[in-house]
Specification:
With about 350 residues, the protein is α/β, with parallel strands linked by helices. It is built from ten helices and 14 strands. The longest helix is centred in the C-terminal third of the chain and has 15 residues, at about 235-250. It binds S-adenosyl-L-homocysteine. S-adenosyl-L-homocysteine binds near residues 192, 194, 288 and 291.
Amino acid sequence: MLHLLEQTADQWQTWFADRELPAYRARQVRGWLFAKRAGEFGEMTDLPGALRQQLAEEFQIWTMHTAAHRTAGDGTEKLLLETADGQRVECVLLRDDRQRCTVCISTQVGCAMGCVFCASGLDGLARNLTSGEIVEQVLSLNRLLRAEERLSHVVVMGMGEPLANLDGLLPALEAATGRDALDISARRITISTVGLPGGIRRLAGHDRAYHLAVSLHAPDDALRNQIVPTNRKVGIAKILAAADDYFDRTGRRVTYEYVLLAGVNDQPDHARQLAALLRGRPALINLIPFNPVTGLEYRTPNPATTAHFAEVLQHGGLTVKIRHRKGERIDAACGQLRRGEGK
Ligand code: SAH
């Protein structure tokens, strides 16, 4: 059986054309899946019965099953999905008071980057997710929305390093942006990377300009090498050069993420160095106070330290946002997603 969500819009149309079925039937099925949030062909009541049956014989819509579904008081929901080969990934639905509905999706089972403060890489990398599995996360979360809610944003900030799996991610994002699919504007889709210069440049040449977020976390290579080990192979200068290039080619302002680890990278001096490093760039700094991870000893700075860090950056001329924690009670916050038992 073919995985329906793995088909590109072109492949999907070709399937109908090859069988001399009208092109609008292809759009109808996509409309049922994306806009009407259908779960099976049987629900697609305006399709001829014979076509529904043929589709059901040849295509599988869902290849993953929900192993756990948790809901937090702030409206955050987390799904633990199990793939056909028994791998587990997590993805999250976030709601905010401005009626934004954001899905946070994973691109890999585990992660190979080894950032010392993150749960996702603790057990290493098992494999890339397929584009169909990535779309499936988006649609599974979409189906959790109430009728009056609409998916407005996608953040690729779940498990894995998205730029290490662009072949899976880019076709999947076509389903998010496609007019006949979810029709979400590219500017509302954020791809967060540990900073792989080759991947950033490839993304800059792509025909849709997504919002890029770079996980910097330290103002110099000595400190970054310690907390983001993959930095030893790259170095901050090359990452910033690629990010500058991204801005030049797309016109999209780049966000720099900075996880605050108490006593490690949260001192006023770090903020001053960071301001100096990024000065003159049209950058947004997103401060993320550390979210606790079972088994890791790092601590969250107190609110006053975080606020002071932000002020120093602002005095240095930078635009700063502090990312407020969501879904913490269900371990759905940044860096808490894992392959584990779905805690
Ligand atoms: N691999 C991508 C996506 C990771 S998740 C990347 O590195 O950007 C999105 C953000 O959460 C990253 O900036 C990541 O460094 C951060 N993060 C990871 N663990 C965290 C933790 N325990 N607390 C707060 N933020 C964390």
